Amino acid sequence: MTVLRVEDLVHIYRGGVRAVDGVSLTIERGERVALVGQNGSGKTTLVRHLNGLLRPTAGRVWLDGQEAAGLSVARLSAMVGLAFQDPDQQIFAGTVRAEVEFGPRNLGLRNIELNETVAEALDAVGLADAAKANPYDLGSARRKLLALASVLAMRTPVLVLDEPTTGQDLAGVTTVRRVVTEAAAEGRTVIAISHDMEFVADTFERVIVMRAGRVVLDGTPASVFGHASWEELQSSYLDPPLAAKLGAQLGLGDTPTDDALLTALAGAGGA
């Protein structure tokens, strides 16, 4: 079922900068989609149309069959949860628990339901033991996980994560990957902006590459990071994951992830 449809979207900032230039795409319920591209390629501008932070200069955005332009920001925030790249632009409450409570409380959750969703979100990101802490007593990586928990707790059908692994160690990246996978398994659509190509290849089933406000590649990690797409990636100043490079050098085909590379190596060894 289609949850998001973008039709010929254009956004021109004051001063004439054409940040999004005729983007059209469809995203299904439960899909895991990564948006990649260099800074200024239009990724963040695109996703900020999904929750009403920006409105189209031209074109249309549809969410669950409703045109976003006709919906209030409050209504859109109940449909699309956005975790900012910089958590300090999002966090404001005096305790971790209060921060995670804010969104679902505004959506009408109370009592047992509110307590359950907050507890589940904090547990999902590994912050259950920090519920009473001041968010600014947490390190930057944990504040980023707190911002993710705040969005998770709202139970929106669509999650948008802007650079969710920035500053995370291996354990943090693993946590984010698990959150994305579990959210999609529940039927929630997850869209992430990321410069971490290994995380993208390991976590998402669809990769969209943007350049100069346009979509230039759109497909599975194997197709987008496969050798046939390297020229397009290079022109977008992107490198495929190391596993994809090694697979190509060894003649093993398209191997965007470590698991795919190991499987190809095992197959080659048994041939």
Enter the CATH topology name of the largest domain: Rossmann fold
From N to C, what is the helix and strand string?
Answer: EEEHEEHEHHHEHEHEEHHHH
Low-confidence stretches: none
Instruction: Characterize the biggest β-sheet.
Output: 6 strands, mixed
Structural class: alpha/beta
How many individual helices?
11
On the 0-100 scale, what is the average pLDDT?
95
Within CATH, the superfamily of the largest domain carries the name: P-loop containing nucleotide triphosphate hydrolases
Helical fraction equals: 25-40%
Q: How big is the Rg? A: 19 Å
Give the SSE layout.
Elements: E1 2-12, E2 18-28, E3 32-36, H1 43-47, E4 58-63, E5 66-67, H2 73-77, E6 80-83, H3 96-106, H4 111-124, H5 140-152, E7 158-162, H6 170-185, E8 189-193, H7 197-203, E9 206-211, E10 214-219, H8 221-224, H9 230-235, H10 242-249, H11 258-270
Parallel strand pairs: 3-8, 3-9, 6-7, 7-8
Antiparallel strand pairs: 1-2, 1-4, 4-5, 9-10
Helix pairs in contact: 3-4, 3-5, 4-5, 10-11
Structure description:
β1 (2-12) and β2 (18-28) form a beta hairpin. The strands form 2 sheets. Strands 6-7-8-3-9-10 form a 6-stranded mixed sheet. Strands 2-1-4-5 form a 4-stranded antiparallel sheet. The chain is of the alpha/beta class and 271 residues long. The N and C termini lie far apart (41 Å). 38% of the residues lie in helices and 23% in strands. The mean pLDDT is 95. It has helices at residues 43-47, 73-77, 96-106, 111-124, 140-152, 170-185, 197-203, 221-224, 230-235, 242-249, 258-270; strands at 2-12, 18-28, 32-36, 58-63, 66-67, 80-83, 158-162, 189-193, 206-211, 214-219. It is globular, with a radius of gyration of 19 Å. The chain folds into 2 domains: 2-79 and 156-240, P-loop containing nucleotide triphosphate hydrolases (Rossmann fold, 3-Layer(aba) Sandwich), CATH 3.40.50; 90-154, no CATH class. The chain contains 11 helices and 10 strands.
